[in-house]
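Please produce the structure of this protein holding cobalt (II) ion.
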Amino acid sequence: MTPSAFMRDIWHRKPLLIRQAVPEIVPPVSREALFELADRDDVESRLVSFFRNRWKLEHGPFSEDNLPSRKTGKWSLLVQGVNLHDRAAAELMSQFRFVPDARLDDVMISYATDGGGVGPHFDSYDVFLLQVSGRRRWRISSQTKLDLIPDLPLKILSDFSAEQEWVLEPGDMLYLPPQYAHDGVAEGECMTASIGFRAPAYRELAGHFLAWLSETVADNEGLDGRYADAGESATSTPAQLPANLARAVAERLQSLKWNAGMVSEFLGTHLSEPKPSVQFDEIEEIPLRQFTKLARTHGVVLAPASVALYDRTHFFLNGEAYEPPASLAKWLRRLADRRQLTASEVEACVALPDLMDTFHDWAMEGWLQIAPKRV
Ligand code: SIN
Ligand code: CO
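Below is the modeled complex.
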């Protein structure tokens, strides 16, 4: 199935099983590497177990001796944001970039022992569940009754009646739209990658937008200054909110203005903000000339954790908005779409004003890297 047929007929509408979506799949991380990630405090990890008929949820970091034995069944270790730390996982995620980056969230990889899983549940977002090693039995249901068992540490459906079921082998993949009930149980040890999406909630966006708008001072001088009440008369009802205060604030709020371009600028800034756990690796300061030489020789790539977006007028990187002239915008858009510029593309950028300075600044922040040598 082509990405366009998938987006037209399936995406956000109905589940789809794709046998051998990734033939001869190589797990992006080994079990050992996944366990090492789960031991880091800048990585979000969870341990879900179902021992003696009880669900238990623990949060990482976990050292290997803190995990149950691999011979014990019914537990599962879930590591969020593997794409932020590992190039192979980032490359796996990039295969799903037929969906815009603004909708892509992260790659979560789970390791489970026999019988392990997180129980029957539903998620609020679209997900591709790609089997990377071993086997997992998936059961799914279109049920609309989505009540949860109360007082459990994780979301488990109180009634789950499966309508379809399959055993997924390495390379097989199951797509599920939001709110679709599912339960995946490991058959022997296995690893599953969840390519997850995000869809901003309007109410949450509105709060962030108003905060952003009030800081865009240049366009909203109406908000400059403070309430002043020279000439206010003495009061005998001191607890009463002054009517003048409410009137003045209402007037200033009414002067707040925005247009579609500002909404787009806000979205680019907000949606390119790195996740709170992300720490970019600081690199040893190198002079601009040396950086330029390396970039011309090897090309540049965005760091796996960098988020780059653009709209008609702006380029956004990790929560910063830039308004580049057209000659620069062309290269920045290419960098955002491909996440890299080849050596010859960098060569074409060298003559452009300020671009190498900007790349150098981003490199020092850890946002942009010299491309790794191809082997
Ligand atoms: C898992 O990998 O065990 C859980 C994925 C999911 O059901 O969302
Ligand atoms: Co799920």
